[in-house]
Amino acid sequence: MSIYRQSTLGTDNNQITFNLLGQYPYYRMTARALTRRELVEFDIKLPEGMGDADYQTLQGKVYYLLSGTMYPRDESSYDTGRRALRKVANLAIEQADSESDQGYVPYTWQESDLIDKTINLKVMYVDLPESSRNGLKQPFRILCKIKYPVILGPIITTSVGSSTSTISGSSGLPFGLPIGLGSTTYSSTGALTNDGDLPTYPSIVIWGPISNPRLTNSTTGEYIELTTSLASSSDSLIITYDADTLEITQAGATVLDKLTSGSKLFKLISGINQLTLSGATVGAGAHAVVSAPSAWALS
Fold first, then answer.
1. CB under 8 Å to 234, separation ≥6 — which residues?
2. What is the pLDDT of residue 272?
3. Is residue 115 scored above 60 in pLDDT?
4. Which of 6, 75, 137, 286 sees the fewest Cβ atoms within 10 Å?
5. Residue 56 domain-assigned?
6. What is the spatial distance between Cα 32 and Cα 119, in angstroms, rounded to a whole number?
7. Is residue 167 located within the same domain as residue 111?
8. In what order do the strands lie in the sheet with 189-194?
């Protein structure tokens, strides 16, 4: 990441902008570095995938340090700048909006590709040692906790729409059946590209009408399947998960118990991921919307 480019920490109601020429005080970023801390109370083993025995203990052990120098125009902007730095450390109080995720806020910047890159951080402490040695110039260090040490790009979305049922075989039965004998329901395949070099977590919304919906990542063979029915096009399943959260809801109620034993809460691998929606029965208009950011290693 380019340390010289403009970057921001926080959300609109409580935000610091670094390397922004023309603002007073001017916050110049001088260093960004990972630090290692042993914090036992945060060292919680978290399952990485459904049905797997592998664990990660990244939470609470990796910190991110933002260092810089504040250049105020006068004593008034010196005081204003210090208040802003103190305020950004009050995330639990000042960042009480929908983007804050319990105190985690985006630290966003651009690289040479001019694509916004983000790390989700929670400011734990701002070090502001006052000294008259440098006049009004104020060095600062912002110690942040990382939600998980991965750089995220913009959200990319694809829609996987169902196709019409195809019917094979024939029947001479003198009565009708609820579905065609020998019928096969299937879905068109949508592609979602992870431009980064790390796997990334998707967010999934499945819309009916469909029963026993299964979303398959054909690139890896992994799938997410639930034994439930979405009767109409207004019914939906919402599936969200990452390193430390998992929610599957239908009509506002949790349906985690409907997840089949063979399901894997998969990540989207680097490159193209071919996604397919299928089900025991699939009605016209059934589709899935899959969203995910690209992901890069933080080093």
1. 208
2. 95
3. yes
4. 75
5. yes
6. 12
7. no
8. 189-194, 271-278, 214-217, 222-225
Q: How far apart are the first and last CA of the chain?
A: 10
Q: Is 93 exposed, middle or buried (0-12, 13-18, 19+ CB in 10 A)?
A: exposed
What is the C-alpha to C-alpha distance for residues 71 and 81, in angstroms, rounded to an integer? 9
Reported pTM:
0.75
Cα–Cα nearest to 231, from 211, 204, 252: 211
**Same domain flag for 286 and 166:** yes
Q: Measured between alpha carbons, how far is 130 from 258 in angstroms, rounded to an integer? A: 58
Which residue reads 């008259």 in tokens? 132
The pLDDT of residue 185: 45
Q: Report how far residue 265's alpha carbon sits from residue 197's, in angstroms, rounded to the nearest whole number.
A: 19
Nearest to 228 by CA among 242, 201, 249: 249
Q: Total domain count for the chain?
A: 2
Q: What's the sign of the alpha-carbon dihedral 10, 16, 22, 24?
A: positive
How is the beta sheet containing 210-211 ordered, strand by strand?
Answer: 229-230, 210-211, 281-282
Rounded Cα distance, 142 and 62, in Å: 14
Highest mean pLDDT among 42-51, 164-173, 258-267: 258-267
Q: Residues 31, 67: contact at Cβ < 8 Å?
A: yes
